[in-house]
Design brief:
Elements: E1 5-9, E2 19-22, E3 27-30, E4 46-49, H1 54-59, H2 71-79, E5 81-87, H3 91-102, H4 109-124, E6 128-130, E7 144-150, H5 166-178, E8 185-191, E9 199-200, E10 222-227, H6 230-243, E11 253-259, H7 260-267, E12 274-279, H8 282-290, E13 298-300, E14 310-312, E15 315-319, H9 322-332, E16 338-341, H10 344-357, E17 369-373, H11 374-383, E18 392-395, H12 398-409, H13 414-417
Parallel strand pairs: 4-6, 10-12, 13-17, 16-18
Antiparallel strand pairs: 1-5, 2-3, 3-14, 4-7, 5-7, 8-11, 9-10, 15-17
Length: 446
């Protein structure tokens, strides 16, 4: 019997309140801050393989790159795969564990027990498949096994991007013109040629074996991330800059503002193996799960998937007093819209300000809000389109609004504000010049 250290090649994120993981189909944001990062693995299938290069990895386990937090590493570990190293205790592993303890990552005994429970169940039920052709030699100082916890079966909330038949397209176009979908900002990272930075999935065929005779061959695909919160997009940009030593003042990378209509139109295009993904506001989901959900003024839509530590999609807040609010807005505008808030504080402040100005609205200490997710809401709006329905206005968070307004005042991103859609030529797969790849290949210099 050998004594093994459980070593995680896993970087923890310096983002408040949340991390991403998948449960069945929806994209789920799960809380970890208040549980001290105790849930770091899902119960998804895992593959085991030997790695000839594992010694090299073990020798570098104590490298700060394994410990530093960043946004995109969290996406990688959650959406694609997570590596777990089992090794005979050695100098490198002890140093790595010491580094983790210094960050207060491994001190939570409950979290370690939960992980071992998930891991043991996966071994027992056969979801972990092995193709090991040799045993670990206890005489080899740096012997190890690499467990690849695969997370490639990515699913998102039901949305327009994969449901657009001709009738759907027609209804969606009407919805965009009738409501204010075009005015809702999204944020992407581009290079100095205005090409969108696209992430490549790992070339898993290089290291995954299903059995000793057959090698798995999987075609890589690419992820194009659209962020609802500009701060999350900045985390992504900064990570790429730090990873590849790109000077932040060189203007080789920048944030580009587009809109929600752009996202759905591009999602409907056939662009090779590119998949367009909408990343929810992580801060908002964290606050919703940890704080807002405890408030009595919130009611969750019956179709919303959520729990004590997760939430599906981008949260939206609808006022139960919509009719009163609509009438109040109508008094001051010729073409009023039904407000759909993507931020709880914005929803509360808007209602309180309006109720103070209009005596016809019954003033409550806090407005009664219905919580749903943006993706399913839009799908339902298009699917049961009623041209007599009140048009709606998607309202971003105050910080995203101010950031967008500031960029607009500086004369940047004018094409987007003129409702010009990003050219598909900007989104071609420039794999030879891709900035970030999840494989071991180094990116070419721009």
């Amino acid at each position: 019997m050998f004594l093994f250290n459980m070593i995680f090649a896993h970087s923890f994120l310096n983002l408040p309140d949340s991390f991403l993981r998948y449960i069945n189909n929806p994209i789920i944001i799960s809380d970890y801050t208040h549980k001290k990062k105790d849930s770091i693995l899902s119960s998804l299938p895992c593959l085991i393989s030997n790695s000839d290069s594992s010694n090299i990895v073990l020798d570098n386990l104590a490298n700060k790159n394994f410990l530093s937090g960043n946004f995109f590493t969290r996406l990688v570990n959650s959406f694609w795969y997570q590596k777990i190293y089992l090794s005979i205790p050695n100098k490198s592993s002890y140093k790595y564990i010491a580094e983790l303890n210094s960050l207060d990552i491994l001190k939570n005994k409950i979290g370690q027990k939960k992980f071992l429970s998930h891991f043991s169940k996966s071994l027992i039920d056969g979801s972990i498949q092995s193709s090991l052709s040799q045993r670990i030699n206890d005489n080899e100082k740096n012997s190890s096994m690499i467990y690849i916890w695969k997370k490639y079966k990515i699913g998102f909330p039901l949305n327009l991007s994969n449901q657009m038949n001709e009738s759907f397209k027609k209804n969606f176009k009407y919805l965009c013109n009738h409501s204010k979908v075009k005015s809702f900002p999204l944020f992407i990272v581009t290079n100095n040629l205005n090409q969108m930075v696209i992430a490549e999935t790992p070339e898993e065929s290089n290291y995954i074996y299903l059995n000793t005779q057959q090698k798995s061959v999987l075609k890589p695909y690419y992820q194009a991330w659209f962020f609802i919160n500009f701060q999350d997009a900045e985390e992504y940009l900064n990570y790429i800059s730090d990873q590849y030593n790109i000077p932040k003042k060189s203007n080789q990378l920048r944030l580009f503002i587009c809109n929600l209509e752009t996202f759905y139109k591009l999602s409907n295009q056939s662009i090779g193996s590119v998949q367009f993904r909408l990343v929810p506001d992580l801060n908002e989901v964290g606050r919703l799960v940890n704080i807002y959900s405890l408030s009595r003024n919130l009611t969750f839509n019956k179709n919303q998937k959520y729990g004590k530590d997760y939430f599906q999609g981008q949260p939206i807040y609808l006022l139960n007093q919509d009719k009163f609010l609509y009438e109040a807005i109508k008094k001051g505008k010729n073409n009023p819209y039904r407000p759909i808030f993507t931020n709880y504080e914005t929803a509360v402040n808007a209602y309180m300000n309006l109720s103070n100005k209009d005596s016809d609205i019954k003033s409550f200490k806090l407005p009664n809000l219905i919580v749903y997710n943006l993706e399913d809401f839009l799908y339902e709006q298009v699917n049961k389109l009623d041209q007599s329905q009140i048009p709606f206005l998607l309202i971003p968070s105050k910080s995203s609004y101010e950031f967008t307004k500031n960029v607009q005042s500086q004369g940047m991103n004018n094409p987007i504000y003129n409702d010009i859609i990003i050219s598909l030529s900007y989104l071609k797969l420039w794999t030879k010049r891709i900035l970030w790849s999840l494989t071991s290949k180094q990116p070419q210099v721009l």
